[in-house]
TIGR04206 family protein
Amino acid sequence: MAWVKSEYAPELAVLSTWLVALLPWSGAVLPIEVGSRQVTVVVIRFLYFRLQYIFGISFGEQERPFLWVVEAPAFNQTLTTASWVWVGAAVLSLVPLALSVAYYVDEDAHEAAMPVDPVRLQGALLALLGVGLAAATLLFWDRQPITIPVGTVLTLVFGTLLLTVDRTDDEGVGEE
């Protein structure tokens, strides 16, 4: 039994790609000590930016709750490698995002122009993105052990679902 009916696979490919682009891929909670104060830092990472909230202390103008992904490697020197992997994943995510927009605009023309099944291509790209985000998560985990990779897991699940959709009953798609 297939998880997704073949006729809904293109919609799932587009919707899942957009959800991956919009939802956070990682969150972290960091209890740290600053001076003699115990503070909690909450970091929420989206593909293209990061939000950080610090509870228990204020840094005034130096506080940077919003950070673009390209600024992340220079922001924290102990997390440079993890941040560069995140930047690479964000750049990679632009490919399935652009393909999903083209798929949404004109499904028939997109399928006709593609040498492979666009749904499976989206699945492969999302799976590859999920692997990149998982690698970044593991690298962040070294310094931020309370990291929750919710979006990373969803990206891998969506990629797997799209790769395993049975497309043989569509008109010509997947037939030899």
Q: What stands out?
A: The mean pLDDT is 86. The beta strands are 26-34, 37-45, 49-55, 66-68, 147-148.
